[in-house]
Amino acid sequence: MRLIKAVLIATMLLHASAASAAEPVRRLAHYTHQRWTEEGEAPAPVLAMDQGRDGYLWLATGVGLFRFDGINFEPIDIEPGQGRQDPPSAVLAARNGDIWTSLGETHRFAVYRDGALRASALPAAPNRVVAMAEGKDGAIWALTARFDAELLRLRGDRWRAFNAAQGLPRDDALSLLVAADGAVWVSLSNSVARLPPGAERFEVVRRTPRANGMLSQDPLGRVWLSARTGSYPLTGPGGHGPPPAGPPYRTDDAQIRGAPRFDRAGNLWIATRYGGVQRVAAAGAFGRSSRLIETLGDRDGLSSDLTNQVFEDREGNIWIGSEKGLDKLRPATLRSEPLLNHPAAFGDKLLSASDGSVYVGEADTIYRIAPGGAPKPILRGVREPQSLCEAPDGAVWIAFATRVAVWKDGRTLRTFNRPDTDSIIYDCAFDRRGDFWISAAAGGLLRHHQGRWEAMFAQADGERFHPMTMVRDADGRLVLQWALRRLAWVDYPTRTFQGLDLGRDATAVTLYPAANGDVLAVGDFGLSRFRDGRVDTIRAGALRGRISGVVQTPQGDTWLAYPRALVRLDAQDLERAFARHAFSLPDLSLGFGDGLTSRPHSHTQRALVQGGDGRIWVATETGTLWMDPRHIVRTHLPPDVSIRSLAAGDHLYRDPADLRLKKATSSLEIDYAVLSFADPRQVSVRYKLEGFDRDWVDPGARRQAFYTNLKPGKYRFHVIAASNEGVWNRTGAAVAFDIPPTFLQSRWFLALCIGLTLALLWLFYRLRLAQLEQRIHVGHEARLSERERIARELHDTLLQSVQGLVLRFQSVANKMPPGDQSRDLLESALKRADDVIVDGRNRVRDLRMAESPGDLPAILEERGAAAGFDPPIPIHIITEGVARTVHPLVAAEIGRVAGEALFNIARHAKAQSVEVSIGFTDHQLSVRIRDDGVGIPQEVVVKGHKPGHFGLVGMRERAQRIGGALSIESRPGAGAEITLKLPARLAYADKAPARSRLSNFLRRFGRAPVA
């Protein structure tokens, strides 16, 4: 096991050594710096910090506990009703996700868990807690501020105190460290003590009289002490064995305040009392060579010289908590040079020479940078160089406002006047013959040939001549922007033209001659490639803004300088973009967090060049930066994503997971955080509310989602994000919530509405039936009234008049002698008149049938007797149910229907018997007439009548007139069955009072027709 550890440690040391050899030592100037101060509403002072499992940076400050997502400081207060909240003195992010803090005045402990900070039920510490740490076994350690050192350990639900009784010296404890092997270290004013893993008693490791040392641990697991005598290791790798030999680093001895911290690259950072923060470069390689020690203070932009703690997050960012706020330092991919900070008015002029060196023309100095070297001035006291070009012999020609200087081999060879063009020299180049050409936009195109200046190519084709950017391609031809929308390839005296598709806004472009003979043109429009007379263009698309520079590396990568980022496209991405004629999201984008602290200059001829050592130089608004594409600082970590809070109505849910919201909730606000601290504003975010949004939403820089008019139901809000490096966290974070319906939104209410609707439909149906019933009853009553009126008229007029005439004629006959032939004739007429009177009285009696009860069996019996069966056959009348009085008119119509049926049986059926069944029920009256005859022909049953005969038709019409339904069934040789069914409400005479009430109701509301 020890052999394996030794091999691993040796491998790490070799790797660190190789990395150090491959990349120059990083200086403090090679970090990006961002700060948040109390003037900008940041909490201050920042006393302690830690990073939670969810990615938040937790800050113990003088104004409370905060968590920070790179953009917003969110205060975290103790839940109401749990006592007074005073500012915390320490903070610890436990591995299980809990956030522990100790309150500075009450010494109580509080734990943030499940979206709330709650006071712990554990006893308060005896003194103010100055540091907290978590052991490898999950135990929580707390170091108190008292002269007699006391350390608290929480294991389970009990604190245990470690003090002099457990081997801690009676001294002022200064710092606490849990080593990689699980040992607990405590530094005191005059000693260092260690609690071995599993032990219950401290042992003094080293006596350090009046050293006031602070502990730290390097990437190899060595425990260090930063004290008055400097910073040096106490142990070997892994916290065991003797330390390497060597003198201590001469760090600030008297002003150490917060715990020193090693970063992952082996640099030692020390927070000091009044001297800002110190950094020992590559301190982990102790004893190998002297190390660079630098200091960063308020004069360098630090928020304060009084610093409290240094912390490194998971992405490698260095955080410094100070008296006035918070600072972040990040290893920069793009590095600045202290000399290159005085840019020319129209941007630094960059030139990549054939010997691999890079020339930079600033406002008052021209610099040369040899491969792998630093900038060195070659011309001082100059004023605003306008262009730089390399001659075929390697000399550099520098054009100024009135003259041209030629520099080579460390000296100026000569200078000579340049022509007055009433315009700056926009660009310059040498042709294959060695002649020097300059473009001056409105001043035209000039050539320096054999010591003389010549104006070239007077415009002849009617297009405005406006030469600007100019380069020499791989074939030695000059390529220049001849006019705003035209390129020219010049091999004097020949010229070849191709158009520039610049879109709506035509401006100057930047030209780049590729090694394979291609010419690239970039600008506001995007990127065009000219190859063998063909041009392909990529429009801006997803990447917007003017492209100020372009470089292609020998490895095939293409770098583009946008206003806020340097973008890298590999060869395949570039070809795909040309095929689609649009950019897609690049695989790498370097912005502010990577050291691009200023915009690439848009007025210099070219903002990007690459030197022979592979470094790319960038001319920005504030000077020239450089980067090595082989050493890009990348974390390759997907960003953490967190749902910070959900606000619905007047309630705020912090760190929600699964929620059941209040009824009637229709609007809510969801705040989320993308926890990538490298460059928080360059991350990409997508979110979707499942159950509401159809597609992913791109909110840009916004970190909130708003929803209104949400219906009751189950929803799931899901947010994903990508870092500035394009690494996606597609798992992201999600919160599920349920909006319960109110009663008016519930299924019960819907069911009630459906029930009420069905009830109303049923009621309308019943009312419609009542209307139809009313119409039928009114019709019946009208018919009865009319029959009675006719009966009265017949009785009171015709019959009485005839009776009177008969009596008078009888008086006359009585006066005639007996045996008189005339008398006999008159007596015979009078007898006939008596028969007419009797028949008339019978008809009057029939018309006044409403006065007689509707005895349906009797009526049907009469109809059977009148049917005229010859020979007579038995007719069986069967009554089912309790007989009830039938409405007279209904009984009469049923009698006529039955009479027609019996008549047909008597004439056509050849039946041996007939059965008439009368069914009285509460719901209907039914009359069924069945015979055992030959049956009705099937075609007659189907058609409903026999051609030329209307008996069956009349039967149906009579049934419909009283509201009934008639059905006929017949099988050949098995007889026929005729059934008449009638609703009880229409058939029975005892239903009349109810019908009368309903009729009155309908009449009142105007729904029933009045007969």
TrEMBL record:
<dbReference type="InterPro" id="IPR005467">
    <property type="entry name" value="His_kinase_dom"/>
</dbReference>
<dbReference type="InterPro" id="IPR011123">
    <property type="entry name" value="Y_Y_Y"/>
</dbReference>
<feature type="transmembrane region" description="Helical">
    <location>
        <begin position="748"/>
        <end position="765"/>
    </location>
</feature>
<dbReference type="InterPro" id="IPR013783">
    <property type="entry name" value="Ig-like_fold"/>
</dbReference>
<dbReference type="InterPro" id="IPR036890">
    <property type="entry name" value="HATPase_C_sf"/>
</dbReference>
<keyword id="KW-0812">Transmembrane</keyword>
<dbReference type="InterPro" id="IPR011110">
    <property type="entry name" value="Reg_prop"/>
</dbReference>
<dbReference type="Pfam" id="PF02518">
    <property type="entry name" value="HATPase_c"/>
</dbReference>
<keyword id="KW-0472">Membrane</keyword>
<dbReference type="Pfam" id="PF07730">
    <property type="entry name" value="HisKA_3"/>
</dbReference>
<dbReference type="InterPro" id="IPR003594">
    <property type="entry name" value="HATPase_dom"/>
</dbReference>
<dbReference type="Pfam" id="PF07494">
    <property type="entry name" value="Reg_prop"/>
</dbReference>
<dbReference type="InterPro" id="IPR011712">
    <property type="entry name" value="Sig_transdc_His_kin_sub3_dim/P"/>
</dbReference>
<dbReference type="InterPro" id="IPR015943">
    <property type="entry name" value="WD40/YVTN_repeat-like_dom_sf"/>
</dbReference>
<keyword id="KW-0418">Kinase</keyword>
<dbReference type="GO" id="GO:0016301">
    <property type="term" value="F:kinase activity"/>
</dbReference>
<keyword id="KW-0808">Transferase</keyword>
<protein>
    <submittedName>
        <fullName>Signal transduction histidine kinase</fullName>
    </submittedName>
</protein>
<feature type="domain" description="Histidine kinase">
    <location>
        <begin position="893"/>
        <end position="986"/>
    </location>
</feature>
<feature type="signal peptide">
    <location>
        <begin position="1"/>
        <end position="21"/>
    </location>
</feature>
<keyword id="KW-0732">Signal</keyword>
<dbReference type="InterPro" id="IPR050482">
    <property type="entry name" value="Sensor_HK_TwoCompSys"/>
</dbReference>
<dbReference type="Pfam" id="PF07495">
    <property type="entry name" value="Y_Y_Y"/>
</dbReference>
<keyword id="KW-0902">Two-component regulatory system</keyword>
<keyword id="KW-1133">Transmembrane helix</keyword>
